[in-house]
Amino acid sequence: MRFRFLIFITMQKPSIPEGTRDLGPEQVRKRTYIFDTLRAVFVKFGFQPLETPAMENLSTLTGKYGEEGDKLLFKILNNGDFLSGADAEALAAKNSAKLTSSIAKRGLRYDLTVPFARYVVMNRGTLSFPFKRYQIQPVWRADRPQRGRYREFFQCDVDVIGSESLLYEAELVQIYDEAFAKLNLPVVIKINNRKVLFGIAEAAGIPDRFTDMTVAIDKLDKVGIEGVRKELNERGIPDAAIETIEKILKTPDFQSLKPIFANSETGLQGLEELERVFQLLSKTPLSNELQFDVTLARGLSYYTGCIFEVAAKNYQMGSIGGGGRYADLTGVFGVPGLSGVGVSFGADRIYDVLEGLKLFPETLSESVKIMLASFDEPSFEYAFQCATELRAAGVAVEMYPEPGKLKKQFEYAAKRNIPFVAIIGDTEVASKTLTIKDQKTGEQWTAGVAEAAKRLL
Residues 6 or more apart from 263 whose CB is under 8 A from it? Predict the structure, then answer.
């Protein structure tokens, strides 16, 4: 008796982790356009390139982003049998917070600023201060994915470390302004100061609850004033203090805060710093609006001075840039006293805004300048020679992989957004020329390879 065994193989549907994205050729070209535009501005202002590992020791990352940020760190399990060294008591109690330190020593970087500070401390003997660097790399956050918010995304950072000069705050405003002007994207550049926020806490009589207050205020654009009031209340902030905070958050300009901060030395210092930045920028025209925003808090706990945030005009999206001054970020790594300031560009959100407003240049979809189409084998071989010569001259060329009917070849060129097609037949082979058609205008012209290269370039 014969038995037949039927094996059913369940085909697994391919997928990617939630909050991540595949990027096709056109998307990569558009992102490269953003990166190249930003990089050119960064270099113009004297910043140098830097790259750091995707992984950092958890000891480097934790405690730098506040309680909210620490929850969003991606942890990497230890190599091999990670449970072999697990805290048995924490494992039995299902205490994930206590268990983590025994099963994970590394994590994916949350931002580029803390790794930058770590790099500065490790290499301080070889650096010239102030040290100015730019960095364009991906970061990871275990956030809830939503529109404009991803778990893997690129940041484009510029930071200066080793100087307390407010010149750099003014320059960072100029960098934001020029970069978005070059991207043809109108924005509002918002500025505040963490010392001003501390002044609010002092005016409200809750200086010891400063962090609770800023964490709540930082959510204003997401939950509204009612949501902020509710969170402040849940954090145990007295009603009288909440009323004072609400009143101050409606202040139209930082000059109006001076009498309110009469008894707050820190608050007044924050106002002086803002005044200095505006003074430096007063005689240098900006393409975009610079706006003081007393509600701007920036939840990251390492900010100590001026803070920034950028919002796109005419498009509903969260902030597309942000940053600020940090007085002693390197202190946690054993080197106190190195003040720094920097800002970040949210490349993924900038991409979404440019795409939504149709602001990407049309030419970005053209990865190839010309395609060579041939009728038969002799013209195909001649086309191959022409393609080699055109590429040597600097022209991006594609050949259709087989000779034959032109309709199919032209359809391919249209789908690839190739602007020119060279038609090669017996006449072109005999005369050593190319007959070139402009896909947009329909115009045709004939020329030798060298002349065609000049016209195409």
Answer: 202, 203
Single pTM value for the model: 0.83
How far apart are alpha carbons 11 and 157 in whole angstroms? 42
Span 25-73+110-356 CATH architecture: 2-Layer Sandwich (3.30)
What are 108's two structure tokens? 């994916």
Going by C-alpha positions, the residue among 223, 325, 337 that lies closest to residue 274 is 325
Residue 3 pLDDT exceeds 70: no
Q: Is 80 exceeded by the pLDDT of residue 2?
A: no
For residue 146, the number of C-alpha atoms closer than 13 Å in the C-beta half-sphere is 5
CB atoms under 10 Å from CB of 86, counted, come to 17
Long-range contacts of 59-62, Cβ-Cβ distance < 8 Å, separation of 24 or more: 59/105, 60/114, 60/115, 60/118, 60/333, 61/107, 61/109, 61/110, 61/114, 62/107
Alpha-carbon gap, residue 372 to 389, rounded angstroms: 12
The answer to whether the beta carbons of residues 72 and 61 sit under 8 Å apart is: no
CA distance 30 to 174: 24
**Tens digit of pLDDT for each residue in 165-188?**
999 999 999 999 999 999 999 999
Output the DSSP codes for 5-49. PPPPPPPPPP---TT-----HHHHHHHHHHHHHHHHHHHHTT-EE
Residue range 375-427, pLDDT digits in tens: 999 999 999 999 999 999 999 999 999 999 999 999 999 999 999 999 999 99
Lowest mean pLDDT among 4-18, 65-79, 163-177: 4-18
Structure tokens at 303: 């900010």
- The DSSP-derived string for 165-211 is -THHHHHHHHHHHHHHHHTT--EEEEEEEHHHHHHHHHHTT-GGGHH
Q: Judge whether 25-73+110-356 and 367-456 match in fold.
A: no
pLDDT tens-place string over residues 298-318: 766 678 999 999 999 989 888
The CATH number of domain 367-456, selected from 3.40.50.1110, 3.40.640.10, 3.40.50.2300, 3.40.50.800: 3.40.50.800
CA–CA separation, 162 and 177 (whole Å): 24
The C-alpha atoms of residue 412 and residue 287 are separated, in whole angstroms, by 42
Domain spans in the chain, listed from the N-terminal domain onward = 25-73+110-356, 78-103, 367-456
